[in-house]
Amino acid sequence: MQIICLQENLKQALNITERIIGRNLTLPILNNLLLTTENNRLKISSTNLEIGIISWINGKIEKPGEITIPAKLLSNFIGNLPNKKIEMRVKGSQLHLKCENFKAVLNGLEAKEFPIIPKIKDKPLIRIKGGVLKANLSQVVEMTSLSDSRPEISGVLMNFEKNTIKLAATDSFRLAEKIISHNQKESINQAMIIPQKTIQELIRILGEKEAANDNQGQEVEIILGNNQVLFNLGDVQIISRLIEGQYPDYQQIIPKNFTTHATLIRTELINNIRVASLFSGKVNNVQFFIRSKPALIEIFAKDIDVGENKSQIEAKIEGKEIEIVFNCRYILDGLNNIMSDKVILGLNNNSSPVIIKPVGDASYTYLVMPIKA
Amino acid sequence: MQIICLQENLKQALNITERIIGRNLTLPILNNLLLTTENNRLKISSTNLEIGIISWINGKIEKPGEITIPAKLLSNFIGNLPNKKIEMRVKGSQLHLKCENFKAVLNGLEAKEFPIIPKIKDKPLIRIKGGVLKANLSQVVEMTSLSDSRPEISGVLMNFEKNTIKLAATDSFRLAEKIISHNQKESINQAMIIPQKTIQELIRILGEKEAANDNQGQEVEIILGNNQVLFNLGDVQIISRLIEGQYPDYQQIIPKNFTTHATLIRTELINNIRVASLFSGKVNNVQFFIRSKPALIEIFAKDIDVGENKSQIEAKIEGKEIEIVFNCRYILDGLNNIMSDKVILGLNNNSSPVIIKPVGDASYTYLVMPIKA
């Protein structure tokens, strides 16, 4: 292999691919990035055996070839070089590099040992703008379960239907649902559960491309393979295994009618809950009193060792008064994923979930189970 | 105790004092801040038994008194309140607080259990501008020894002489010296070794006051007590124990004459060493070749597992050529504490230290011992 490329392009491709690589002592090749030439471009691949990331960059390919190089070393090295032309040449299992006044030799491993990243050649389910996908996935991704006991909720559900994609994530204590509209003509009807880590990487990479001004309205193809999914960003592909199993029928636990509605300013609610959380002990229990005369929400927390705190927020209250206890961290997670100035809370009684929605946006629903008194 | 003060003032005083407080399980009172009223002001004190910090703020003292409150709780609580008036009232061992729509009760411990922070009433050795003190101490503070085996070099030397204060720090592998000029008329001749942690806190607090636009040219009094030092910033005092022992006579190891001088651009040298450091192995060894034909510094590092790297930097070279090996991290620490565009290196042979100085500033000297071949 012998190629010339620009430092800036190579640096970006390394940043995108190297982040899924940890420190693998049993299988050292997993610490490495695979560099190959393909159709007059340099292709950089990484895998942790669950997720594979491939990035292509332009360059002058003088001689095709391939090698694997430790990811952190290559990325740190290239990241510190000046933004000039880099010459790379493979000799045996070493990569020789030149850039301005720098000359280096990096020890690698043979490319043939590198695990195969599956190829998915099916037709895309859908094409969607990268920015839209990123913004919507970001609103649900943290709500997945971190426990291994129910793998089917350890990922994000993507439910493709006519005109919509429904995203959902839950850990059984709280749930977020986000509905993306689409106007693709062909009918699709598919559901998949994608590991949280994959969604986090997809969000990160879309963010890096946004920051590099590199995805002005760029579309992402979502392609379903054999228990695998491919997010095709054009010059970057993310391939991930899917989670097997049946996602719970969460729709049935979302109440449709409420006896109490409270509308209030989101940042005030966040701030008052944050103060209360200092007094909420290890269980994070915070009491909410929704009062109609005067119309306000009172927030109370008490810990026998620490002390107690009470605060009030003006609110528009419709329906009956209610007292209810929540884990305040779950409420905060939802509020922090809403962008609107005001939020509306829908409640029924102190053993039914609360629904939190942005005012003026029907596409996002956040649900939290109460703590039973 | 019953007082009213502004959230912003209280928040700043808490930030300044609470940072030295860790998590002390054997002596819980050390997790607390002492709040007392003194001369119509609120006085907040913290101590870790080595360093004490006291901060005074204005307020309306309706009833004098005192209490201690867990530092992190109080600081998080006050930090999240709106910037309005706060009413505080001590009842038994509890502090009752009110601020707008927030009401809280914080459990405390009795003030009489709080350790005494020594009072130092001597005459100041010197008065010096806070900004000057901070900038100069910052250039030496990281060079102290982290080992317990030689406590006398685990702190920063402050050597007060006629017209100058000499600051020095070393871990025996490298050394930094900074000379501050002063024009105080009374003659002073005192030396003290101040723990690194104290200097770090002093720098942090001067920085916070700078950020709050609160020390426009404000002077710091340095007062020597009985094995204690007091830095008096006016509304903040830092009291610390001193390190006992004799600081090494470091002047004798700083060479005064050199066979080789190299002048080059500081950021280029930093960048090339940083690249070389990736190939410098666990011992951080990097080779420097100072060449006169052509005039340049060549930097080389090789690690049998990783690979090797060579780079060149243009330099003005005076005197004879030399090859020498350094721990690159020590060289970087010095270069990162120099502000000038260019630096000058003074060398003699491959077993003598290198001296690094900013071009155009005689007040800073950085010395690194070479690694013997």
Automatic annotation (TrEMBL), chains A, B:
Highest taxon of source: Bacteria
SMART domains named in the record: POL3Bc (SM00480)
SUPFAM superfamilies: DNA clamp (SSF55979)
The DNA polymerase III beta sliding clamp C-terminal domain, residue ranges: 252-371
Gene3D superfamilies linked to this entry: 3.70.10.10, DNA Polymerase III, subunit A, domain 2
Annotated GO CC locations: cytoplasm; DNA polymerase III complex
Occurrences of domain DNA polymerase III beta sliding clamp N-terminal (ranges): 1-118
Compartments, as annotated in UniProt: Cytoplasm
GO biological process: DNA strand elongation involved in DNA replication
UniProt cross-references to InterPro entries, sorted A to Z: DNA_clamp_sf, DNA_polIII_beta, DNA_polIII_beta_C, DNA_polIII_beta_cen, DNA_polIII_beta_N
Residue ranges of domain DNA polymerase III beta sliding clamp central in the record: 129-249
GO MF annotation terms: 3'-5' exonuclease activity; DNA binding; DNA-directed DNA polymerase activity
NCBIfam families the UniProt entry points to: dnan (TIGR00663)
Similarity section: Belongs to the beta sliding clamp family.
PANTHER family to which the protein is assigned, alphabetical: BETA SLIDING CLAMP, DNA POLYMERASE III SUBUNIT BETA
Quaternary assembly: Forms a ring-shaped head-to-tail homodimer around DNA.
Protein name (record): Beta sliding clamp
